[in-house]
Amino acid sequence: MSSEWGRIDADGTVYVRAGEGERAIGSWQAGDVEAGIAFYTRRFDDLEAEVRVLEKRLESGAGDPASSRKQAQALQGQLPEAAVIGNLAALDERLTAVIAAAHARTAEASEQREQARAGAIAAKEALAAEAEKIAESATSWKASGDRLRAIVDEWRAIKGVDRKTDDALWKRFSTARDAFGRRRGQHFAQLDTERGAARDVKERLIARAEELSTSTEWRETAAALRDLLAEWKAAGRAARDVEDALWKRFRAAQDTFFHRRSEVFAERDAEQLANQKTKEQLIAAARGIDISDPKAAQAALRDVQERYDAVGHVPRDAMRRLDDQMRAAEQRVRDAADAQWRAAGAASNPFLAALRDRLTEAEAKLERARNSGDAARIRKAEDDVAQRRALLPDD
Question: In whole angstroms, what is the distance from residue 378 CA to residue 382 CA?
Fold first, then answer.
């Protein structure tokens, strides 16, 4: 009996078609011919199933193409002696296609592995170069240290680099990390030295500020404390655990002085404001003098002037305004006196003699002021002399 791809002859010899002829593959004595052909056909089906598995594996990309190629080559090598009945030629072509596809996949996988290896090497080279840059110039010590630790984690996640290359790259990274550690250690050692020096300077500044805190030389001491503050800022920072305490002590000494000064100035300001009000009242009184009797007006003005001159300091911003207003009130009386003098004549005017007496008194007061050396008193006496002279006619 025969099938499309093989037969069993009368003596039980089994043949499979191979190319233009046929090949004996065994002997069937176990039963009828149909069963024998079915048996050898099933063996072919088993072989064809193995080929189909290889094809599916390559198609899905799930398996190792090199392994699939070896299995296909092994199967193809069995075909010339295979004791099966089936289309061996077609199966051979399929295996040839599997081997070709597996070879292509192997080459592709090899190229991908090489690309992945090159990418992994490039990634580790970039990390090594970054570490070298950090080691050379980074000054953000904490951030840079954190970054170097993160690089280690990234390094470990990169796979596919051969041992020799990986060791060389790791050596670069490790060397850079050690260099950064030494440079950071030197920096903080120097910083500790500088902070110690800054602490010594600030202790001296504190001692000086505490000495000045009880001074009553307000202007000079305030300037000295400003200079101490400038020195404080230029001294740099001490260690973190002492810097705040040092500053509190220094600031407390400054606050003590300026609080005392503020109290004194507040008291002085209140006194000067009271003096200002007093002078404003005296100016109002001078403005209200009745000038119908110039002689009486002069006497009244002298009384107001004496009281005005006896008033203490007023706020600086009110000083000129008050003096100008007082001079205007005095000028009003002088104008009245001048008018009377012109009317009565210079020779017989007793008022003129009184004005000369007042000038003499003012000149004597100026002499006493000059002898005292008080600049403010001298200026005031000079102004009074000038005013008295202005009341007299030119000789």
Answer: 6
Phi, psi of 95 (to 5 degrees): -65, -40
- Distances, alpha carbon 53 to alpha carbons 45, 48, 57, 60, 95, in Å: 12, 9, 6, 11, 11
- Where residue 193 falls among pLDDT bands split at 50, 70, 90? confident
CA gap 96, 250 in Å, rounded: 93
Rounded distance, CA 394 to CA 345, Å?
A: 13
Phi, psi of 90 (to 5 degrees): -65, -40
The position carrying tokens 């009945």 is 85
Burial class (CB within 10 angstroms; exposed 0-12, middle 13-18, buried 19+) of 130: middle
Compute CA distances 125 → 56, 132, 162, 170, 174, whole Å: 40, 10, 13, 9, 12
Distance CA 73, CA 117 (A): 29
pLDDT in the model for residue 2: 56
Give the whole-angstrom CA distance, residue 280 versus residue 329.
Answer: 12
pLDDT tens digits along 70-105: 999 999 999 999 999 999 999 999 999 999 988 888
pLDDT class for 19, splitting at 50, 70, 90?
Answer: confident
d(CA 23, CA 14): 8
* Residues in Cβ contact with 293 at an 8 Å cutoff, skipping those fewer than 6 apart: none
- pLDDT above 70 (res 109): yes
State the Cα–Cα distance between residues 287 and 327, nearest whole angstrom. Answer: 10
Partner residues linked to 18 by β-bridges: 21
The dihedral over CA atoms of 104, 105, 109, 114, expressed in degrees to the nearest 10, equals: 0
Token digits for 202? 């600030």
pLDDT computed for residue 319 by the predictor: 86
pLDDT at 136 over 60: yes
Q: Which of 147, 145, 148 is nearest to 187 (CA)?
A: 145
Q: Is 8 helix (H, G, I), strand (E, B) or coil?
A: strand
Question: Two tokens at 24?
Answer: 């004996």
Question: Are 6 and 37 within 8 A, CB to CB?
Answer: yes
Which run of H or of E encompasses 16?
Answer: strand 13-18
Is residue 204's pLDDT more than 70? yes
**Number of residues that this document lists for the chain:** 395
Residue-wise pLDDT for 309-355, tens only, equals 888 888 888 888 888 988 998 888 888 888 777 766 555 567 767 77
In angstroms, how far is CA 83 from the centroid of its own chain?
A: 83
